[in-house]
């Protein structure tokens, strides 16, 4: 793993949360997009080398909707940049981690992604990201 790629924050409303984070970080949202396969709308902010991804549920049974219903708004995941997502997935499997995906899938911000089950990582959802 190269670096933290971004921190994902589950929110009820991207427009409300974007106002807060744009003021907090003194930087604009640079991209808003929908990831239909996850039932989520995302917004990205960049502050120096750091990125924040705001995640809003588009459908009631999406992972983000379920997360907010159970835990409320807040940090959802930490994403790490990797050079070879398939090799990293295999390395983590070999180390005994449980992956939520058998293969990488398209994610937001032009990335291939895979998630590591929080039961394997002290209750923190980890995302692997590889640029496409």
TrEMBL record:
Residue stretches making up the VOC domain: 3-131
Query: Which InterPro entries does the record cross-reference, listed alphabetically?
Result: Glyas_Bleomycin-R_OHBP_Dase, MeMalonyl-CoA_epimerase, MMCE/EMCE_epimerase, VOC_core
**What Pfam families does UniProt report for this protein, alphabetically?**
Glyoxalase_4
The protein's superkingdom reads: Bacteria
Q: Which UniProt keywords apply?
A: Isomerase, Metal-binding
**Endpoints of the signal sequence:** none
Molecular function terms, GO-annotated: methylmalonyl-CoA epimerase activity
Q: Which EC number(s) are documented for this chain?
A: 5.1.99.1
What PANTHER family does the entry give? METHYLMALONYL-COA EPIMERASE, METHYLMALONYL-COA EPIMERASE, MITOCHONDRIAL
> What family does this belong to?
Belongs to the methylmalonyl-CoA epimerase family.
Q: What is this protein called?
A: Methylmalonyl-CoA epimerase
Protein source organism: Mucilaginibacter litoreus
Q: Identify the gene encoding this protein.
A: mce
């Amino acid at each position: 793993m190269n670096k933290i790629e971004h921190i994902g924050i589950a929110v009820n409303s991207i427009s409300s949360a974007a106002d807060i984070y744009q003021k907090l970080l003194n930087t604009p949202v640079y991209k808003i997009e929908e990831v239909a396969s996850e039932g989520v709308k995302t917004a990205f902010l960049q502050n120096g080398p750091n990125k924040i991804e705001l995640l809003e549920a588009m459908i009631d049974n999406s992972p983000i909707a379920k997360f907010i219903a159970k835990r409320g708004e807040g940090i959802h995941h930490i994403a790490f940049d990797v050079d070879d997502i398939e090799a990293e997935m295999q390395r983590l499997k070999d180390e005994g981690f449980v992956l939520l995906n058998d293969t990488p899938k398209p994610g937001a911000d032009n990335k291939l992604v895979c998630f590591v089950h929080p039961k394997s990582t002290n209750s923190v959802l980890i995302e692997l990201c590889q640029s496409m």
